[in-house]
Write a structure and sequence with these properties.
The chain is an alpha/beta fold. It has two domains: 139 residues, Response regulator (Rossmann fold, 3-Layer(aba) Sandwich); 223 residues, PPM-type phosphatase domain (Phosphatase 2c, domain 1, 4-Layer Sandwich). The chain contains eleven helices and 15 strands. α3 runs parallel beside α4. It is rod-shaped, with a radius of gyration of 36 Å.
Length: 400
């Protein structure tokens, strides 16, 4: 004989009233008693006397939970459940099911669970046990649906992110030069490899007054769409600075002022620029927190010019100091971001500027060969672990 369900609050009764439970049992009295107990607890209840009818009802209107008798003539509970669990409709296949069985043996319990039952209750049914297991399965069902909604939201967020990254990638690709400038007597080669679709590195070249060319490179904080926006801003600021000012130091001052006026001190970027006179080969170098400029001489000597000023955006009035160099035929310089300092193939530690100097090929016959040689050694494409940071590099070589 079954006891009545424990009394519940009005709020719980209201929540239960939204739950539809289907009772499947070939014994009319058992169905009636179960239906009365479920109704008194506030659940909505429907009944079926056999397995085929239950499958028909379930496909017509899916219940919240199924109470299924194990022993029924014809299509028994085990067979009904197996069909449900193999249904093509995930909503049908995942309906919580509690098997009602008169067998208390472990073998019977195993058969229930193997058939796909979420739980089972042994007859004679204890009402308190049945209610507790119903509530447990309903909570699990609610949690599963919540997880599915969260997964759907996460998937939608992922699709939106991919669309944003694709748009940012197209924008960034339009900003990064793909062809070297036509500069008689000089060779220019460049490389850009973001960690993901877009990154925080950017470079370029701009005409200056008196016929000079400004080669510049910058590395913003972060990766992804936000970093791509910083690179967009960097190109605009360097372009504006080169129009308004005639020295790399003044250009850096203008970029720093505008960058800081936009972000305060919340973001920063490293940068380095080289103003080259193509006719004489003289150049002025200014760095702001950026890795050293490497100068490769035709006589196999190497020079390193460090950044003196801090990264752009940190200080309101930093001092930018220019370093003067002369480039003769066969000399070259390398601008790059710190992505080249990532672990090289077969090495456990990060490179240093000195280590990078040793990798420079002084016998390289072109800017392209010089750049390819350093990339092959410091940031090979086939590295199994990939680069931990964006990689950008710019090689400029005088040939006449």
């Amino acid at each position: 004989m079954m006891e009545r369900f424990s009394s519940e609050s009005k709020e719980e009764m209201s929540n239960n009233s939204r739950v539809q439970i289907l009772v499947v049992d070939d014994h009319a009295m058992s169905r009636k008693i179960l239906a009365q107990l479920l109704t008194s607890a506030g659940y909505r209840c429907s009944q079926c006397e056999d397995g085929p009818k239950a499958l028909e009802v379930i496909h017509a209107r899916q219940p919240s939970l199924l109470l299924l008798d194990f022993d029924m003539p014809g299509l028994n509970g085990e067979e009904v459940l197996k069909r449900l669990r193999s249904d093509n409709d995930p909503a049908v296949a995942q309906i919580p099911a509690i098997m009602l069985t008169g067998h208390g043996s472990e073998a019977s319990e195993v058969r229930c669970l193997q058939a796909g039952a979420n739980d089972f209750v042994t007859k004679p049914i204890n009402a308190a046990v049945l209610q507790a297991r119903i509530e447990t399965q309903l909570r699990l069902r609610s949690m599963r649906r919540q997880l599915e909604r969260q997964n759907d939201e996460l998937e939608e967020w992922r699709r939106n992110l991919e669309r944003d990254l694709a748009a940012a990638r197209l924008t960034q690709q339009s900003l990064i030069p793909h062809k070297p400038p036509r500069l008689p007597g000089w060779q220019v080669a460049a490389c850009y490899r973001p960690v993901i679709q877009v990154g925080g590195d950017i470079y370029g070249w701009l005409p200056m007054k008196e016929g000079r060319i400004l080669f510049w490179i910058a590395d913003g904080t972060g990766h992804g769409a936000a970093a791509a926006l910083l690179t967009t801003l960097a190109k605009l600021l360097f372009h504006h600075g080169s129009v308004e000012h005639n020295t790399p130091a003044r250009i850096m001052e203008a970029v720093n002022h505008d960058f800081r006026s936009i972000f305060g001190a919340r973001f920063f970027m490293t940068a380095m620029c080289v103003a080259v006179d193509p006719e004489s080969g003289s150049a002025s170098v200014v760095g702001a927190g950026h890795p050293p400029l490497l100068v490769v001489r035709h006589d196999s000597a190497t020079e390193s010019i460090a950044s003196i000023a801090p990264p752009l955006g940190l200080l309101e009035h930093p001092e930018f100091t220019e370093t003067l160099i002369d480039l003769e035929s066969g000399d070259a310089f390398l601008l790059y971001t710190d992505g080249l300092f990532g672990s090289t193939k077969g090495e456990r530690h990060r490179l240093t500027p000195k280590g990078l100097e040793k990798m420079l090929d002084h016998s390289a016959v072109s800017a392209e060969a010089l750049l390819k040689g350093i990339l092959d050694r410091a940031a090979p494409d086939e590295a199994s672990d990939g680069s931990p940071d964006d990689v950008a590099a710019l090689a400029v070589r005088r040939v006449a």
